[in-house]
Amino acid sequence: MTQTLNIVGGGMAGSEAAWQAANMGIDVVIHEMRPKVETFAHKTGNLGEMVCSNSFRSDDSEQNAVGLLHWEMRAADGLIMQTADRHRLPAGGALAVDREPFAETVTARLKDHPNITISHQEVTSLPEDGHWIFATGPLTSTALGEAIRAETGAEALAFFDAIAPIVYFDSIDMTRAWMQSRYDKGETEEERTAYLNCPMDRDQYEAFIDALLAADKTEFHEGETAGYFDGCLPIEVMAERGRETLRHGPMKPVGLTNPHQPDVKAHAVVQLRRDNALGTLYNIVGFQTKMKYGAQTEVLRMIPGLEKASFARLGGIHRNTFLNSPTLLDEQMRLKSRPNIRFAGQITGVEGYVESAAMGLLAGRMAAGDILGQPIAPPPDTTAMGALITHITGGADAKTFQPMNVNFGLFPPVQGLKGGRRGRKDRYKAYTDRAKSDWRGWLAQTALDAA
């Protein structure tokens, strides 16, 4: 090929976009500024590095929209899902991975691809010509962010993404904690015991909430506002919304039985999930926080079983920038004012590793189609990827646009099915059956176009 596809950003979206385009015969250059230019959240220069969590969430492709997205990416020979399956850790019905070897494998496979070159020079402007995908994610550099803002003429939208703490397993008191997935979910014993549980009685829970509310928090810089994404709220923000909020969220006690006290029903339960293959690290599920480090250790050690916890990483908070995509991008994820530039990943207003990688997959294939002279239409909105791209490029209300996880609310209804909770199982199965059929059809058509 004489026309090169340039991809800025080597996270989930950029890595997947490069893989897809390269497999269609396109020469690709990945521009990843790390490790030359570091960010405060990343620890390495690896491609596909996981920052906030090691979970890709539910892997159920029949009853869950995220699991359906996993299925679609696997069917499209997706690099991110291939690598996640290779480095999978027990997590009940979820897909969690050993994050360091995951990123190392993504990096190695992209480096070894004959059509891919990697550059570590920072890109700070929007090019006038050539084929480009910007997949710079929530930590877009200041210079590039200013260039995007100048081009779009719009104020950058931002929310704050909080990182959960990680605990050393050998510092957890297993005479108080126990291993069990909620409702014993999973096909193997390892899956059914994938989570570590720390119970609280009512008094312990109330004291924990008091301490959480009183703890020192990270202050925002002047001009910043805390427009959090509801799927990633800091625990103290949830507590501020009501004392029972956490007990009905990440600390819900349902589906669990404490073997140390089988006759005592816990008032709340804190869950930890294995964070590496060795089982030496566990992250506290849903415990993103903006407490200052000293306050974090004091408050988190109030949790039964974590009284002597040692932390491999404490929680943190960072700004997460995204575009008002419904006004700025066309259905191909191209910048309307500069059609040679596509955006992909979290910067487009999707939330989550899987959603980011999925938008990279689509952007890579669409860009390759343009270079081949055979444009590829977006997938049907009955598929998970089609529902997401439709939402961010026009389905959402631009005035209230916020980052969105994939969910069945984005899908066109299946006619003739019962509504409400009682009909949900059949309804979700109908959504996923239809999506899989339509996704197979889209893949077949686009493969024919690109041949």
TrEMBL record:
**A GO molecular function for this record?**
flavin adenine dinucleotide binding
Where do transmembrane segments lie in this chain? none
The protein's annotated catalytic reaction(s) are:
uridine(54) in tRNA + (6R)-5,10-methylene-5,6,7,8-tetrahydrofolate + NADH + H(+) = 5-methyluridine(54) in tRNA + (6S)-5,6,7,8-tetrahydrofolate + NAD(+); uridine(54) in tRNA + (6R)-5,10-methylene-5,6,7,8-tetrahydrofolate + NADPH + H(+) = 5-methyluridine(54) in tRNA + (6S)-5,6,7,8-tetrahydrofolate + NADP(+)
Q: Which cofactor does it need?
A: FAD
Location comes to: Cytoplasm
The protein's Enzyme Commission number: 2.1.1.74
| Enzyme class, first EC level, given as a word | transferase
- GO BP annotations, alphabetical order: tRNA methylation; tRNA wobble uridine modification
The name under which this protein is listed is Methylenetetrahydrofolate--tRNA-(uracil-5-)-methyltransferase TrmFO
